[in-house]
Amino acid sequence: MVVRSTIMDTNSFRPEHASELDDATRELTNKRDRLLGESYRLFYRRPVHLVKGLGQYLWDANGDKYLDVYNNVASIGHCHPAVTSAVNEQMQSLNTHTRYLHERILSYSEDILQTMPEAVNKAMYMCTGSEANDLAMRIAHSYSGGTGIIVSQEAYHGTSALTSGASPALGSGQPLSPHTGLIASPDHYRLAGQDAGLWFAQKMQEKIDEMSANGIKFAGFMADSIFSSDGVLPGDPGFLQPAIDVVHKNGGIFIADEVQPGFARTGEAFWGFARHGIVPDVVTTGKPMGNGIPVSGLFAKHDVLASFSDQIPYFNTFGGNPVAMAAAQAVLGVIKDEDLQAHSAIVGQQLLNELKVLQAKYECVGDVRGAGLFIGFELVTDKESKAPNKALALDLIEKLRDRKVLTSVAGPHGNVLKLRPPLAFQAHDIDWLVGALDESLQATL
User: Fold this and answer.
1) CATH of 81-337, one of 3.30.40.10, 3.40.640.10, 3.90.330.10, 3.20.20.140
2) 137-154: average pLDDT
3) Mean pLDDT of 273-300
């Protein structure tokens, strides 16, 4: 039996789609099959062969232009000149590791820590979000003396042994660690009328008690504060605080995985956790930090980090190297100079308003929710039952691809369009996206 995972296989090319491909595309997919490991996946039934990117746009090998509504790796826009210039300049002088002195890592640390709560005052660097979350889990173990990590039911936190064991979104083929506890996602759409904060806090305590009853000491709760893999569930600002209070009351730490909601994306705050007025114990970052250059970070309260770092040396050969720091510094500069947090808030709200027009127009659009330029567009069979409509969502993704709009799906049922464009996305792009969605819905229904 072939095991399908949520985030990797839901919107993917499969061998049975090969007959739909043109000769050039089929040649490339066949070559991938011959040369690359079978674990890799391609987006779309007809994969897109991209050759160029600029800002919020991409071009394929035929010269066709696409609107990118999915990519937070190139967070400030594909091939941003500030990043390419900074990387090129640093590459021509030095690139080495952190066991030599260098100013760039210190300058960047000063600047990034200024965006954090005062108590979060120590920095460490890696190359990927997986590495940052792996270290965060190790810190949680050492600080608490426990091993139990709670994550949401569709969370994705990485690909290392530790993080994949705490990433249910990877699917049933990837076994979860016996020390991982799953907590129900705060699905505000289906919790209508309930106090989501108190509900989630209660679920947190129940899961901690369950782990304890099974002989597992609680170490911490790790969450992406917009619950993006769970279907983009921003909720009202502040609703997470009661659950974090429960975490601390039980001796655990809160790890804020900011790989997706961080770096001004939500518009309401620079960091996703800041929407909720929370001070995390550990913050992890990844993809958007370097706009495509592999760099990630871990930021922590001194006493929390000390429980690990006073005992165990940590070294990551490429983590914090001068080229990566140059890219990260350029990203921070662009976010400030182009006022991208305010931009995300304003344009994100304009987009949300237009998407809600489609929600009112179509019975199959159950909910539209988001914060800044991070929006979930949920497809259902009907608004009364709120039953997830995965088949429609997957067909819609393909129709959008035909109209040169690129995005994908999220959520445990794969029925939520995850609209997360580079922050270069502009108000004038809204017509392209919403128009393509409207046409695609009409063509699909």
Assistant:
1) 3.40.640.10
2) 98
3) 97
